[in-house]
Amino acid sequence: MVSTRFFAGDGRLFSKKQYIMKTQNSVTPQIGSEGTTQTRSVKHALQGVALALALVLSLGTAQAQSVAGRIAFGIDAGGNKYYGNYTDNQFAFHGDAFIRWNIFDWLSLHAAYNAGQLKYKTTQASFDYQGIYATPVGTVNHTRVGGWDLMLSYNVFPEQTFVPYFIAGIEALNFEPKNANDVSLRNNANAVYSKNVIGGALGVGFEMYISDKVTFNGKVLLHLPGTDWLDDYSDATNPANNIRQDAFLTMGLGFSYYIFAPPIAAKADDESSRTSNTTNITNVYNTNIIKGDTVYVTGPTDTVYLMRPKVNTIYNFPGTLFIVNTDEFNNNEPGNMRNLYNIKTLVNQCPDLKVEIQGHASDEGTVARNQELSEMRARRIRTWLIGEGVNPDKIAGTVGYGTSDNAVTEPKNASAATLEAARVQNRRIAVKVVQTCK
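Given the sequence above, the corresponding structure tokens read:
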């Protein structure tokens, strides 16, 4: 990206090495004595990213939800740290604006614009090198940076309300090195290098759901711009600079808003009519013969004997288990398939019986995701029943209620075992009679 031939002011053509040696007037900045080398700087930056990653992962057991198809826009604000020939302890403001699209629950595309100023003090070596372009030792030079980023993130815990992620991608960066008086530094003023470069960025981040559409988020990125001129200096003759790459670290916190999110479906019928005109029967199959109202079951394939079950009677099956955050049956759990066959037996007890399959969820995760899961799981039961030979006409429809019709209230301050016992009752499939036997 950097030209290898340079013109001096008198029109003579020099190689990059000749040009640097000539313009230094035999004065080579003692980079090692003024700060860390670039190799050490990049190493320290990577250590910073690793530390941030460890912090994020230590928080990863909280709850969250990343849902495919959602699009958010947001902003982050924070600071940056420059790593290069004149690295010191200067931090400066940095921020970005971004759009995030969740391609899948676990994979998101980020498009962002970031901007800020990288700051580094004038040292004696840089003062000698810059000549008439220098400001006094101790004053702060700066490089304005602005970049467009296109990155992908891997979402580590997409089913939780706190979602850490790894992120990496490409960056188109523009930079402008200037001194403390806002005057272009030496090589910038003489157009020695291109100020538009293509590089990359990688790091870690998180989003934490405050509500279904609003998240608190943050990220730490290491920017590798693909140039050694961020600070207006590049020393090809110094063997210590075996990695000729300036870099900078950005870190920020902010908020995002999901402008597109899965809608929460309205209930299939009026709440008051469901309360007054339905009978709920919960079936728990723990012994060989179980009685729940007028339902008798002695085995997975036995007949359920009913005398004209009432229309609007709802049979609850909390033992129907799914893999977390999916509509796939969790057949590793003992008795799950037996519970599925009990649903089939209920639906198939007479030719004229028609039912509605209902899905329900516990309060874990976001309302939007729970709504989506309850709908998916109700449809999955219908598909399974038809695959088992049930006449499709016997299934009048499917509906998901998410967390809007919990069987029990989930306690806020309770042991993990007590809370899970309540959640199991709310994570259920229900079968509602819409037409009874003749």
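The first strand starts at residue 5 and ends at 7. Try to locate this feature in the token string yourself.
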